[in-house]
Design goal:
The complex is a heterodimer. Chain A is an alpha+beta fold. Chain A has a single domain, classed as Nuclear Transport Factor 2, Chain: A (Roll). Chain A is 19% helix and 42% strand. Chain A has three helices and seven strands, in the order H-H-E-E-H-E-E-E-E-E. Chain A has a six-stranded mixed beta sheet with strand order 2-1-6-5-4-3. In chain A, a hairpin with a 2-residue loop joins strand 5 and strand 6. By secondary structure, chain B is α+β, with helices and mostly antiparallel strands. Chain B has two domains: 102 residues, Rieske Iron-sulfur Protein (3-layer Sandwich); 252 residues, Naphthalene 1,2-dioxygenase Alpha Subunit, Chain A, domain 1 (Alpha-Beta Complex), CATH 3.90.380. Chain B contains twelve helices and 22 strands. In chain B, the strands form five sheets. Chain B has a nine-stranded antiparallel beta sheet with strand order 13-19-18-17-16-15-14-22-21. A four-stranded antiparallel beta sheet of chain B has the order 6-5-4-7, with no helix packed on it. Chain B has a three-stranded antiparallel beta sheet with strand order 1-2-20, with helices on one face. In chain B, a hairpin with a 4-residue loop joins strand 9 and strand 10. Classes of the chains: A alpha+beta, B alpha+beta. Chains A and B meet through helix 3 and strand 7 of A and strand 13, helix 7, strand 19, helix 10 and helix 11 of B. Strand 7 of chain A pairs parallel with strand 13 of chain B, so a sheet runs across the interface.
Chain lengths: 166, 442
């Protein structure tokens, strides 16, 4: 995983604050188990990918999560049943997101990379961390999430149950 | 935990349990809750089941080319499964024979030799010691050192359908004797491949579960839990492949003997006479390349039959579960903690089919899977519940009166019957008591 950083270090604002706010909002909705509001952020052709290695080819390698838009809808619907036992009650979650940099800007879409640390409390405290790649699209209806990739620090596993929105 | 030597403690004090103690834990219709929680039981299991018996280690397709290797653990010990330049797959202790350093430190790789980073000893991937730096230090004894200090192979190793099994005991029943009727499940799986071989090359999801390893395994053949543990899937997404209401389906459960058991959907699939019911009712037009190859290999009728019957849903004692188009294995870490490994079953050369299988596997299996995440949660809560010592028994009597014996084993036409669990525990107790020669039928 080699990223080219496009963020202009001389720009006072760094990454567009609107993009950073969008990532914060996505994180907060996930933390607070506000599933339907979280789902509403996604664009129609979105992908949500959590690979087992940064270099994995999803065509030949299995991933922890590799959701197309339809499966994102199913995942949220399952969480919303109230009997998704692994999230009933929902894990208590709080994550911090930082180190924002733009790594791709093509047409109306920008890919923002960041680091995150997430504390999950369920039976005990579980610490999660990794790198986010949010591909955010500017549309007439506002910012929409076109893709989210999560490179877990411990992607090599084993990892505990991860039924919440990482 | 007790520190034991390689052969395990003597029988009369094995894991602190005396002969007969394990039989007292298991009755035909119930088992004591401490079979899941007791550290002494766990120690005895590691010896009797995971060291003396046959265990699944790897699939030959994980190391397709000479030089390929993967690292695994058996009963907590590190092993490397390597394919030599002669094409042979060997299960070798992942431990330098000089001072004990772990040789291979990656999950997988390709190398014709393994060089220990501590003092530079080098081993060929067939296990032979090929290089010792500054050999003069051994003077005239060098020849003996080199000849005697190759990597240690497991005392026994055999394969069936590409599944590599090993035993750390030099003597015992053969793998064929161990698998017995369960070999038909492997046959049924590989029959889905036009070439007759499958590929487990997509990587293993590694899921840490806070429950006993047996809970993971026996739950896989529990035909009773799906409507409840997995209610959210059926509520949110779609109905199951066939009804999970036992009275609405001709699905049976089977204790195959030797601890092996299954939920067998074949009768129901045959009754429906519909292809790919086990694969989300996939339309054959979606995978034309696979259909063509299968018909070429099996003929039109043979391919249809294969696609109707589909893959097995079979537990092979003690640590292999064929979950239709997924394979699961478990690594016990302690009485209350287990790693479940899952990987999709790929078919050589069938990219369009494999791509679908990958996505289906991600949907169902692993730490974020729509199914297995909830099995892991229920397992963890089961472990918490069992901390209550009363009532002392876990009940397994469902369907006891309606079990019947036929040539395939002990079956029950109610898929919610606890027939598989009864078979598992009967065998488990016999193995722990040392009444069988390793695993397998007596």
């Amino acid at each position: 995983m080699t990223e080219t950083i496009l963020t202009d270090p001389s720009a006072a604002a760094g990454v567009d604050p609107a993009l950073v706010s969008f990532v914060y909002r996505e994180a907060r909705l996930a933390d607070e188990a506000r599933y339907s509001e979280w789902e509403a952020l996604w664009d129609d052709d979105a992908t949500y990918w959590v690979p087992m290695s940064p270099d994995a080819d999803p065509e030949t390698q299995v991933s922890y999560i590799n959701d197309n838009r339809s499966r994102i809808r199913s995942r949220v619907a399952q969480l919303n049943t109230g009997v998704r036992h692994s999230q009933t009650p929902p894990s208590v979650l709080r994550r911090t997101v930082s180190n924002f940099e733009v790594i791709e800007a093509a047409g109306d879409a920008v890919t923002v990379a960041s680091n995150f640390v997430l504390v999950e409390y369920r039976f005990a405290i579980t610490l999660w961390a990794g790198r986010y790649l949010h591909t955010i699209r500017r549309t007439e209806a506002g910012l929409r999430l076109a893709g989210k990739t999560v490179h877990l620090v411990n992607a090599g596993g084993p990892i505990p149950t991860m039924a919440f929105l990482i | 935990m007790t520190v034991t030597d390689q052969a395990g403690p003597p029988a009369e004090t094995a894991g602190g349990l005396r002969p007969g103690d394990v039989h007292a834990l298991v009755q035909p219709d119930r088992v004591r809750g401490l079979v899941y929680t007791d550290p002494q039981v766990y120690v005895l299991e590691m010896r009797r089941i995971f060291r003396e018996g046959w265990v699944f280690v790897a699939h030959e397709s994980e190391v397709p080319e000479p030089g390929d290797y993967v690292t695994k653990r058996i009963a907590g010990e590190p092993y490397v499964v390597a394919r030599g330049k002669d094409g042979e797959v060997r299960v070798l202790a992942n431990r330098c024979t000089h001072r004990g350093n772990r040789l291979c430190n990656a999950d997988k790789g390709n190398s014709s030799s393994f060089r220990c980073p501590y003092h530079g000893w080098t081993f060929s991937n067939d296990g032979s010691l090929s290089g010792v730096p500054m050999r003069d230090g051994y003077a005239e004894r060098f020849g003996e050192v080199r000849a005697s200090l190759g990597l240690v192979r497991t005392p026994r190793q055999e394969s069936y359908g590409g599944f590599v099994f090993a035993s750390l005991a030099p003597e015992g029943i053969t793998l064929a004797e161990h698998l017995a009727n369960a070999r038909h499940a492997i046959d049924r799986l590989v029959a889905l491949s036009p070439t007759g071989s499958i590929q487990l090359s997509a990587g293993w999801m590694k899921h840490r579960m806070y429950c006993n390893w047996k809970m993971v395994m026996e739950n896989n053949v529990d035909g009773y839990h799906a409507l409840f543990t997995h209610q959210s899937v059926y509520d949110a997404v779609r109905p199951a492949k066939v009804s999970h209401v036992p009275s609405k389906t001709e699905t049976m459960v089977r204790d195959m003997g030797g601890g092996h058991s299954e939920i067998d959907y074949a009768t129901e699939y045959r009754r429906l006479d519909e292809e790919f019911v086990w694969y989300g009712r996939l339309a054959r037009e979606k995978v034309p390349g696979y259909i063509a190859a299968l018909e070429e290999a099996r003929g039109v009728d043979g391919a249809h039959d294969t696609l109707v019957i589909g893959p097995p849903h079979t537990l092979i004692f003690p640590n292999l579960f064929i979950a239709e188009m997924n394979v699961m294995t478990v690594e016990p870490l302690r009485a209350g903690e287990t790693i479940a490994y899952t990987t999709p079953v790929l078919i050589p050369g069938q990219r369009e089919m494999n791509s679908r299988t990958l996505r289906r596997s991600e949907g169902a299996m692993g730490p974020a899977g729509f199914l297995i995440a909830d099995d892991g949660e229920i397992g963890a809560r089961n472990q918490l519940g069992l901390a209550a010592r009363e009532p002392e028994w876990v009940m397994l009597s469902r369907g006891l009166e309606t079990d019947v014996t036929d040539a395939t084993g002990r079956i029950n036409k109610d898929k919610s019957a606890e027939t598989p669990q009864r078979g598992w525990w009967k065998h488990w107790a016999a193995v722990l008591e040392g009444e069988t020669s390793g695993n397998g039928a007596q």
